[in-house]
Write a structure and sequence with these properties.
Number of helices: 12
Strand order of the largest sheet: 12-11-7-10-9-8-15
Number of strands: 15
Structural class: alpha/beta
CATH class of the largest domain: Alpha Beta
Radius of gyration: 20 Å
Shape: globular
CATH topology of the largest domain: Dihydrodipicolinate Reductase, domain 2
Number of domains: 2
CATH architecture of the largest domain: 2-Layer Sandwich
Strand content: 25-35%
Distance between the termini: 43 Å
Largest sheet: 7 strands, mixed
Length: 340
Amino acid sequence: MKNIDAGIIGLGRLGSVHAKHLIEKIQGVNLISACALDDEQLKWAHDSLGIPGIYKDYRKMIDTEDLDAIFIVAPTGFHPEMTEYALNAGLHVFCEKPLGLDMTEVNGMTQAIKNHPKQIFQTGFMRRFDASYQYAKRMVDNGEIGKIIYMRGYGIDPISGMASFTKFASEADSGGIFVDMNIHDVDLIRWFTGHEPIKTWALGSNIAAPELKKIGEYETGVAQLQLDNGVIATLLGGRHAAHGNQVELEIMGSNGWIRVGEIPEKNLVTVFNEHGVVRPAMQSFSERFNTAFTVELQDFINNIQNGTQPEATVNDGIRALTIAKACQQSADSGEIVDIP
């Protein structure tokens, strides 16, 4: 099959991971152009990855290069306009989560996707491609833990990422902790249960990082969800884990429990020293989901070459965003919010 010629928009923390994977690991794709506003990021893409086409204007990149597909890893607020522009240019689109911040813009983006049914649109719910979550999903689907009663999703960044996040959130709208951090957990809850959250009550605090209050962000957010079949779920997002990156999912069933990522073990090493008996922990989301990111991108390329639509649809992205925004609304208002 013909290799897919692709470009990428955004070379930040996640964009640089995707770019490196596309160059070094993904089969069937040529990453021939990259767009970013930062000169150092563009220099890295050109000099270290060998990407020939370097741009600061994504429209110019799409208009100039002979592309088949685009990877959008820019700040969330730009996702709708970039997706629409790329689709109208005839490109297949991989767009990182969330789909956007403004629901009117996201609805316009959704209509553009529907207007181009022969083009592949895929959103970045990479946890669906993680082997551990897939193993747990098969167990649930096979009835091995009975009926799901309760779910709990943790997403807590390490303290070491606080300065980077503060800079990002000061310059761009993150969407709030539930949209930025817990949207993956929302997607997993829907994926595992096959049901929709209908009501939420959420709280936020800045006890560990009071400086975030100045930029309208919570350091910790907790949301309780009620699903349409009676299942209860809890989301916990945070930015202050002392030990590393804590991404955990618990599924409580009528005949058993499953926990994925309860201990974020870096490897199989146990250290015996003056600190006691220590198991090194993973320090970043990119380290934890490195393989899942690779499988996800490969799936997108395969879908383009085979003409198949991805499992996670734009509707999954819309539902996850709607639910996460309702959680943020509840935390900000202190009220229980019905989820449309």
